[in-house]
């Protein structure tokens, strides 16, 4: 079986059941950066990717419904620090006053 080209944002599963997402592909170095669901980042050689796919150790997978495992987000952070999600003022960026671009 021919290994698929890894694409950033696609999810895969190792034979043990662990999910990971492709987060970067470097064609010059022939490497693939992956992030496991627990947040751990690793690098894989293109040759390893192809051989593991051919052996059946890797398979395509659906993205998990709860993606927060890989990004360390608290439920309070999702709603603007515990504020009501309907209060859109908590979702706006602050002004860039006082920012000196030439420092």
Description:
There is one protein chain. This protein has 103 residues and is α+β, with helices and mostly antiparallel strands. It has a domain at 14-58. The chain has two helices and five strands. The protein has helices spanning 46-55, 75-78, and strands at 11-14, 19-26, 31-36, 41-45, 58-61. Strands 4-3-2-1-5 form a five-stranded antiparallel sheet, with helices on one face. β3 and β4 form a beta hairpin. The longest helix has 10 residues, at 46-55. The chain is elongated. It starts with 10 loop residues before the first strand and ends in a 25-residue tail after the last helix. 5% of the residues are buried. The model has no long low-confidence stretch (mean pLDDT 78).
Provide tags for this entry.
26% strand; single chain; elongated; 14% helix; five-stranded antiparallel β-sheet; 103 residues; alpha+beta; 2 helices
How do the helices and strands line up, and which of them pair or pack?
Layout: E1 11-14, E2 19-26, E3 31-36, E4 41-45, H1 46-55, E5 58-61, H2 75-78
Antiparallel strand pairs: 1-2, 1-5, 2-3, 3-4
Brief write-up:
With 103 residues, the protein is an alpha+beta fold. The protein is built from two helices and five strands; from the N terminus they run ββββαβα. The relative contact order is 0.16.
